Hints:
The structure holds two protein chains of two kinds.
Chain A: E1 4-7, E2 10-13, E3 19-25, E4 33-38, E5 45-49, E6 53-54, E7 62-67, E8 70-75, E9 84-90, E10 102-106
Parallel strand pairs in A: 2-10
Antiparallel strand pairs in A: 1-3, 3-8, 4-5, 4-9, 5-6, 7-8, 9-10
Chain B: E1 3-7, E2 10-12, E3 18-25, E4 33-39, E5 45-52, E6 56-59, E7 67-72, E8 77-82, E9 91-99, E10 103-108, E11 112-116
Parallel strand pairs in B: 2-11
Antiparallel strand pairs in B: 1-3, 3-8, 4-5, 4-9, 5-6, 7-8, 9-10, 9-11
Amino acid sequence: DIQMTQSPSSLSASVGDRVTITCRASQDTSIYVAWYQQKPGKVPKLLIYTASTLQSGVPSRFSGTGSGTDFTLTISSLQPEDVATYYCQRYIRAPWTFGQGTKVEIK
Amino acid sequence: EVQLAESGGGLIQPGGSLRLSCAASGFTVSSTYMSWVRQAPGKGLEWVSLIYYAANTYYADSVRGRFTISRDDSKNTLYLQMNSLRVEDTAVYYCARGVVGVVPLDYWGQGTLVTVSS
């Protein structure tokens, strides 16, 4: 099975902090990684695709980097509305595996 | 405006069958990625199945051989036929679309709950 391993599984940070979430693929996935945000009780929302392309309408404090097997999602200045669970996903050839999620909370 | 609306969820006994539908508007399902993603209660997202172009269909190992993805282009609707349902298939099932070759899942429906229980 192709795995996407996120770390940490949860984090707590202060408003204004820089937050970084990592995702490691068990196989080379080129740049075909996306990041999603899911707020409690809501539908997932696409933030980033092709590892670093910001989806239209997503605030510029979100950014993504990486290629191959290692990827990161960064929130440059954490805001209260960023409380959510974040998922990475590979989408080069099936299966389109998701990471297990990273829950972000405000300290 | 792109919209996706799932239906067909409900309570079903183990071993039973259910067909989910996802009615699309604002775009044509035949020209995009169309996928099903599920989320068990309190758990993370699990990719289930994908269809695009004429006959490209893909499945997660956990559902292969039991679930079938299809679409009706005349109705602009996506389906998921689920057979031999198991308790562990209990989840909210989302349909979602993307741009082939570029964007995975940029629009999602609100989801439909499937509960497999005796």
